[in-house]
Amino acid sequence: MISYDLVVHGGTVATPSGIVRTDVGIKDGRIEAVGDLGSATAAEKLSARGLHVLPGVIDSQVHFREPGLTHKEDIGSGSASAAMGGVTTFFEMPNTQPNTTTAEALAWKVRRAKETSWVDFAFYVGASPENADGLGLLEGLEGCAGVKVFLGSSTGTLLVDDPAVLARVLRSGTRRVACHSELESRLKERKELAKTVHDHPVWRDEACAVESTRRLLEAARAAKRPVHVLHVTTAGEIPLLEAARDIATFEVCPQHLTLEAPDCYDRLGTFAQMNPPIREGRHRAALWDAVKRGLVDVLGSDHAPHTREEKAKPYPASPSGMPGVQTLLPLMLNHVHEGRLPLERVVDLTAHGPARIFGLPTKGRIEVGRDADLTLVDLKREHVITAAEQRTRVGWSPFDGMKVTGYPIGTLLRGQFVMREGVLQGKPGGRPVQVGAFVE
Questions:
Q1: Hey, how many other C-beta atoms are within 10 angstroms of the C-beta on 127?
Q2: What pLDDT sits at residue 157?
């Protein structure tokens, strides 16, 4: 008879076959059993009565700013914020200083994360004209989440706006390529329209995103290379992506599902500024429709912190981006409470989906053999999000003062608490994740 290290009993568990009242047995950091374990022997038993037990959230788009920009964030502070929000794995973006474009830069981040990350991790390598032909070798290195392409300029200097360079990138390697899709030539043409922050979605308009995504999908088909379109924001992109399910997946962000223009700019000013922009209600409605129809594959926070002083600069000198890794799950649980989508869909978007499309064989599901990464949530708990509770170094949130119903109260990484009732537990123990395996 197996003796477990931990049995989580009496909870309502989100399994791949449905949400059921059952127990989870954990041994050596892995899920050993899912079922009735009332008579099982365990070193520790944890009552989850009244709670939902979800697979640990996988946030596949964060910017933790290390190296080079650690006055805004570092891997330690960003991963602490992740753990506080129920996130057990993150994929971090390459637009640091220096950019993560070489094996040496990637290895530095992996070493640093092994020392300081509270949760498990992988890092994107940024595509550039200089490394376009060698990306296939880089994507196989330890801790590599894959390749990231900036088709339009955003924070930092990474940019691939030449179709010939993009074709080279797509021919180098086999894994799904993550893309920031905005058309750089249109951004340059329309820059003079950016007078106030309310003009941000006018400058970076719908056509800018739609035409970029149309060209990206054509290039992906020509290269026979799967792509993943990050932070989709427009109604016009949805039909294109729906017709390209064989070659493309896509992500939306909680802030684009929660905020809309012009209200967000009226209330928050430049603190609502991000790329691609938060847009008017018809785009938000189109994103929700795509979520409800099962078209959206992943939710990512696009956690992109800047200091209050930086964000307060007059537009357009103000940088784009906002914190979000700690509020991703609370926002979506509140949407569940308000009836916008079922909890099963949140689980698919934050765990099953990322594990499936990025190939994470040990993550994303509560089933035997997977890592025991669990997020315990109280769907009835009312909570007011505050800037003070954010563990991000910049210490602010666009959702400061928002009341939500449904909140993460425990985060377990490989069977060990890293957050319990709003308090970090133990010490950083994150590891690089295996990415790129085929997952059914």
A1: 30
A2: 76
What is the distance between the alpha carbons of residues 48 and 34, in angstroms, rounded to a whole number? 14
Q: What is the 3-state secondary structure (H, E, C) of 118-186?
A: CCEEEEEEECCCCCCCCHHHHCCCCCEEEEEEECCCCCCCCCCCCHHHHHHHHHCCCCCEEEECCCHHH
Q: Are 419 and 426 in contact (CB under 8 A)?
A: no
Mean pLDDT of the 224-233 span = 98
Q: Taking all residues of the chain, what is their mean pLDDT, rounded to a whole number?
A: 97
Tokens of 429: 């123990």
Measured CA to CA, the distance from residue 135 to residue 102 in angstroms comes to 9
CA distances from 315 to 263, 280, 312 (A): 17, 19, 8
> Whose CA is closest to 415, among 362, 378, 361, 350?
362
pLDDT in tens, 392-435: 999 999 999 999 999 999 999 999 999 999 999 999 999 999 99
| Structure token pair of residue 111 | 């070493």
With beta carbons less than 8 A apart as the criterion, state whether 99 and 106 touch. Answer: no
Supply the pLDDT for residue 440: 41
Domains defined for the chain, CATH in brackets? 3-53+367-424 (2.30.40.10), 56-358 (3.20.20.140)
Q: Radius of gyration of the chain from Cα atoms?
A: 21
Query: How many CB atoms neighbour CB 403 within 10 A?
Result: 10
At a CB cut-off of 8 Å and minimum separation 6, what does 257 contact? 284, 287, 288, 291, 331, 335
**Cβ neighbours for 429, distance < 8 A, ≥ 6 positions apart:** 118, 413, 416, 418
Do the Cβ atoms of 111 and 121 come closer than 8 Å? Answer: no
Q: Which residue has the tokens 């696009």?
A: 302
Q: Are 56 and 433 in contact (CB under 8 A)?
A: no
Name the more confident of 439 and 387. 387
CA distances from residue 323 to 277, 396, 410, 419 in whole angstroms, order as listed: 15, 7, 21, 19
373 catalytic, yes or no? no
Selected catalytic residue, list 23, 74, 199, 302? 302
